[in-house]
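Lab notebook, bench 4. Continuing the backlog of folding jobs that were queued last week. Each job is logged with the same field layout so the records can be merged later without manual cleanup. Today's entry covers Replication protein, a 169-residue chain. Filled in by technician R.K.

JOB TYPE: sequence-to-structure
TARGET: Replication protein
LENGTH: 169
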Amino acid sequence: MSDARAEGKKLFTDLQASLKDAQSAFTGLAAEQKQQCRTITEAAEKASRTAVEASEAFAVSKPRLMIWTALCAALLVSGGWLAAFWVGRHDGWAAGQVAGRQEALTANAAASWANTASGKMAKQLDDLGNLQPLATCNVPGFSIQKGEKGVRWCVVAGTDGQFHGWAMP
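JOB STATUS: finished
OUTPUT FIELD FOLLOWS
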C-alpha cells in the first residue's frame, strides 16, 4: 500500500503543481487581458476625441465653406451676365449696322431715283398735290378694277370705248 500511497501522493503533488501552473497562467492571462482592455479603452477614447475634434473643425469650417460657395456662385452668375451682355451687345451692334446700312442704301436709291426724269416729274406732281390721288386711284372718273392674277388696276373708260390705266402698287 505504500506504493499506492506514494503514487497517490505523487499524483496529488503533480496536481498541485499543475494547479499552480494553471493559476499562474490564468493570472498572466488576466493581466494580459487587463492590458488589452486598457489598450482598447485608450484607443476608443482617442477615437472619440478625434471625432469630437473633427466635428468641431467641421463646425468651424462650415460657415467659411458656405461663404466660399456663395462667392463662387456670385462670380459664376456675374460671369454669365457679363458674357450675355457682351454677346447681346455684339449682336445688337451688328444688327444695327446692317439695318443702318440697309437704310442708307434705300435712301441712296431713293435719292438717285429722285434725280431721274420720272423722279422730277413725281416731285412736280407731289408739289401740286396730285401724286397721292394718282397712287391711290382717287381721281374723278377713274376706278379700281381687278385684273389677272389679282393685280389691281386704276382704269378710266376712254372716248374710244377702251379702258386705259395703270397697275397699282
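OBSERVATION: The beta strands are 143-146, 152-157, 163-167.
SIGNED: R.K.
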